[in-house]
Structure formats: C-alpha cells, structure tokens
Automatic annotation (TrEMBL):
Keywords: Aminotransferase, Pyridoxal phosphate, Transferase. PROSITE patterns: AA_TRANSFER_CLASS_3. Belongs to the class-III pyridoxal-phosphate-dependent aminotransferase family. This is Aspartate aminotransferase family protein. SUPFAM superfamilies: PLP-dependent transferases. Its cofactor is pyridoxal 5'-phosphate. One of its GO terms (molecular function) is pyridoxal phosphate binding. The lineage of its organism: Bacteria, Pseudomonadati, Pseudomonadota, Alphaproteobacteria, Rhodobacterales. InterPro entries: Aminotrans_3, Aminotrans_3_PPA_site, PyrdxlP-dep_Trfase, PyrdxlP-dep_Trfase_major, PyrdxlP-dep_Trfase_small.
Length: 443
C-alpha cells in the first residue's frame, strides 16, 4: 500500500506509540493500515488542522472527507439538531431528503438536471455498487471497463473493478482495464481519442467473449492512476461507451463537490452528460452519506422489477449533514477559494520544479494536485523512494499529504476545500524545506 506504516519497524518508535499500535493490531487485526513511518495520533480537528493528545498541531493537506473543514460548526449544528429531532429511514415522507434532492439535481446539468433522480447510500462503495447493479439490469450485460489503477470501493463488486487494491485483490472476470490519460508521457491533444480507442477495443472483446459492456466508470480526476486533469479527455470516451451499448458512470466520490475549482462536478470539465453520477466521501463532511444521480430511463426498469431500500442511506441526520455541506459550499464562496488557492499552490510548486530537477510534473485541478517525482526528467523514471521520503519528511514537520499512482511516486495534495492562503504558505514552505533536505540543498 502507498505510504503505509511498516509493522516490522515498530521497535524504532517511542514506547507510547508502540503500545498503541500493538493494541490496534491485537484488536483490529492485520487488514487495517496506518499512514506514515511514524504514525500520527489524532484527538481533535478544527478547520484545516488536526491535533494530537499533546496538543501538537498538524496541517491537513490530505483529507477530502472533511471537505468544508474538520468540525465545521454549521455541519455539527445541523447534525446535532436533527439527531435530537428524528433519525429514521426513507420509507416515511420527510421534507429534508426532498429539499436536498431538489437543490442538488440542477447542479448536474444535462439529462439529470432535466428529469433525473437521486438515490441515497451510506458510502461511495455502496453508491458505485448500486450504479453497477442498475447498469447491469438496464443493459442486460455484465462487462465493466475501468482505468488501470482505479479505485471504486470496498464491496465485493466494487473491489472487483478497483485494481489499485493490488495484485492479490482479484478483478472480476467481466472487468477490463484501459490506460489512464497520462498527460505527461503522452501528447495531451491525443489522450481522449487514444483512450476512446482502448475502450472500444475492450468493449468489443467483452462482446466477443459472450456478454458485452454494461458500463464504463471513471474518476474524473483519475486520482489513483496518478491525478490527471486534462479537460475534455472523457468526451470521446463517452461516445465510444454509448456506441458499444454501455452506460457512462462518473465516479465523483473524490472529484466532485467543487474539488476541481472550475466546476462543481469533475465530469463537467470533460463536457459530458453521464448516465449515472456517484457521490460519497465529502458529501457529509465526515458523516456517512453518499448516493447516485441517474437519468430516468436508466433506472426505470430497475425500479419496476426490483426494489431499493437502505436502512441508513438517506436518513434524516445524513441528509442534514449533506444539506449543511452544500449550504457552506454555496454560501461561503468555497468553489472560488478552491480555484484561487489551488492555482497558487500549483504555481509555486512549478517554481520549485525549476530548482529541483526531481520534480517531473506538477498537475491537477483546484485542490487536487499531483507532483510527480522522478529519478531524472529525461527518462521520466518514477521515483517512489523519493516520494516516500518527502511524504514522511513533511509528516515529521506536521504537514500531512500522501502519495498515489501505479508507481507510488506522485505526491497527492488534497486538502479540505477551505484551505487558506496561510495554509498554502505553511505547506509550500515545508515542502521546500523537505525537498532541500532530500536533495542536499540549502532551503
């Protein structure tokens, strides 16, 4: 796993940390992972900051779940008020869920805005699982195409089309992969067409092997593939998917809710009109709420032939959290902040790249930024060791980021959407200091 703590190194840690990790392993088992060579203990959070039990302050430049900031007062108040009022499922008529859907649907544009529906789950994994159930039912096919290192969830179905979970996590027999649109190693002008051709080929192979394409699914910023933000790439892909009789599913769990800055939804950067949009993570600022938006003709037969019920999906408290997040983004100029601060960070990282040759590429959109570390720019050889050293060097300075990509060499900067200019200054100053340490320069 990218940036995981190595349990074999536990003896090098302070006694208190070692005891906490040993207790965690004993109680939670081997499947859970910790970040960083020196794992972080957290007790409280506020805005873009996390605090450990000793009161030490950390800059959170990684967690997109707390999209409008840790312990956002408006979200906390909304959840508390609703929990004290009523928390029950969607088989009763309740205004909150209807008000939220009515406000959200227009944000998607296209066919969903015109006549679409929303359905609610607890997690992004459930949302992607539901999207595929609907796609298979609608098309009568089972084939799924995803990108080479995609991550789409933890359920049995979604794990089967999440290749980033690793070689020991089996892919489904009806799953096919296509390369992500690597804008640094390929001509950006040809990325969309090449990806569309790869999708068409895989759809043909699915058909030849006895079934066909139910759906193509992509994270609009290709987060686990290494963060690629070239606009319009998915437009020809959507055409190829529909030509093969499949549905286009836009996974907005990571790239939605104004994360890209220039649009509210990541797929809108590509000029496409998806059949299904899936949401999760940042939707409730930490409260588990997720869902899908879907065009009516796609879900019509599914709704007639089967039923959908989720005990907790769309409950009153979940919707109160989601509504509060949407209100903050809308009322507080969050999308403009994302666009402005994201551009500032990318510009200053690009300036650092002029000094540090190991920075091969700086890319991204809004507050989703990738910094590709390489052994040298001429060969463009990924340098995962350098990325690991930088991530852990920043952690030592109490700045939290991570790494991503098939070679684990892309620094992943994905802070809460309320990241400020002062936060950016802290992040960039410490990044410069760590780069100087790693590459033997004076800061």
């Amino acid at each position: 796993m990218v940036n995981a703590f190595n349990p074999d190194a536990i003896d090098a840690l302070p006694a208190e940390t070692r005891r906490a990790i040993e207790r965690r392993i004993r109680l939670l088992g081997p499947a859970y992972r910790l970040f960083y060579q020196d794992p972080v203990q957290v007790s409280t959070g506020r805005g873009t900051r996390l605090f450990d039990r000793e009161g030490r302050e950390y800059l959170d430049a990684y967690n997109n779940v707390a999209s409008v900031g840790h312990a956002n007062p408006r979200v906390v108040e909304a959840v508390s008020r609703q929990m004290a009022t009523l928390c029950t499922h969607t088989r009763y008529i309740q205004d909150g869920i209807l008000d939220y859907a009515e406000q959200m649907l227009p944000t998607f544009g296209g066919r969903i805005a015109a006549a679409g529906h929303m359905m609610f789950t607890c997690t992004g994994s459930e949302a992607n699982d539901l999207a595929m159930r609907i796609a298979k039912h609608h098309t009568g096919r089972h084939g799924i195409i995803c990108t080479a290192e995609a991550y789409h969830g933890n359920s049995d179905l979604t794990a089967s089309f999440s290749p980033s979970l690793g070689a020991q996590s089996p892919l489904g027999t009806w799953v096919r992969r296509v390369p992500a649109p690597d804008s640094w190693r390929n001509d950006p002008a040809t990325l969309g067409q090449k990806m569309a051709e790869a999708v068409a080929e895989q759809a043909w192979l699915l058909k030849r092997h006895g079934d066909g394409l139910a759906a193509f699914i992509a994270d609009s910023l290709f987060s686990s593939d290494g963060i690629f933000a070239t606009p319009e790439v998915l437009r020809p892909v959507a055409e190829a998917v529909r030509a093969a009789g499949g549905l286009f599913v836009a996974d907005e769990v990571q790239s939605g809710f104004a994360r890209s800055g220039d649009h509210f939804w990541g797929f809108q950067r590509h000029g496409i009109d998806p059949d299904i949009v899936t949401m999760g993570k940042p939707m409730g600022n930490g409260y588990p709420v997720a869902g899908i938006a879907v065009v009516p003709e796609v879900v019509e037969r599914f709704g007639r032939d089967t039923r959908y019920f989720n005990t907790f999906g769309g409950n009153g408290v979940a919707i109160a959290a989601a509504q509060a997040v949407f209100d903050v983004i809308r009322d507080d100029g969050v999308q403009d902040n994302v666009r402005r601060i994201g551009a500032l960070i990318r510009d200053r990282l690009s300036a650092l790249a002029e000094r540090f040759e190991a920075i091969g590429d700086v890319r991204g959109a809004g507050l989703y930024i990738g910094v590709e570390m390489v052994t040298d720019r001429a060969s463009r050889t990924p340098d995962a060791d350098a990325a690991t050293r930088i991530v852990n060097g920043l952690r030592a300075r109490r700045v939290l980021i991570s790494a991503t990509g098939p070679e684990a060499n892309v620094l992943k900067i994905r802070p809460p959407l309320v990241f400020s200019e002062a936060d950016a200054d802290w992040l960039l100053a410490e990044t410069e200091n760590v780069l100087a340490e790693v590459y033997g320069q004076t800061a």
